[in-house]
Amino acid sequence: MSTITADKFLDFFIHFDPNNPNHRRAAYMLAGVIPDAAMRDSAEWVKTYRTANAQPLTAETVQWSEWDARVSEHFTVGEVFQFDDFRRQRVTAENKRRIVKLAARLDVLRKQFGPLGVTSWFRDPVTNARVGGVDDSYHLTGGAADVFPLQFNPLEFEQWCEQNWNGGVGRGIKAGRRFVHLDDGPKGVWDY
């Protein structure tokens, strides 16, 4: 039995022709096996699908006061601030611009490796000191995020980032942490 992944699902609909009776029949067969709750307007995937932005987001168009608002195709304000109002209240316009730019770069990884969890992104100086961050951390500018793949081998993800990320890479997985640090600074790799 094969597993239906998001890529296979998307591939199916890329070729969907509503005028082809075989395609319509296949879509009805698929709908017949999806639970009713997943097909309601209130289902999270339906809301996401219907509210996806056709235009790229900018720091000025993001609804920063809403936790569920998107800063990019795949990342939300809540993930950027870890649902912490203290952090959100201390972000500047320049921080927001860097957050949106980094989010667009992380979207590329998301498309290649599947969903990414976020353990830390923007940190104000107080939060940064509390978690033991360095004084010149890229997290202070919104230009760094600590992420991990939800559906991909974390060590392979980290190795790919070491070789391909055009910026800073902190190897957290190899150090026994749950994340890889990615930033928009100069290309470089270090261990925690």
TrEMBL record:
Cross-referenced InterPro entries: Peptidase_M15A_C, Zn_M74/Hedgehog-like
A Pfam family recorded for this sequence: Peptidase_M15_3
The Peptidase M15A C-terminal domain, residue ranges: 87-183
Protein name: Peptidase M15A C-terminal domain-containing protein
Originating organism: Synechococcus elongatus (strain ATCC 33912 / PCC 7942 / FACHB-805) (Anacystis nidulans R2)
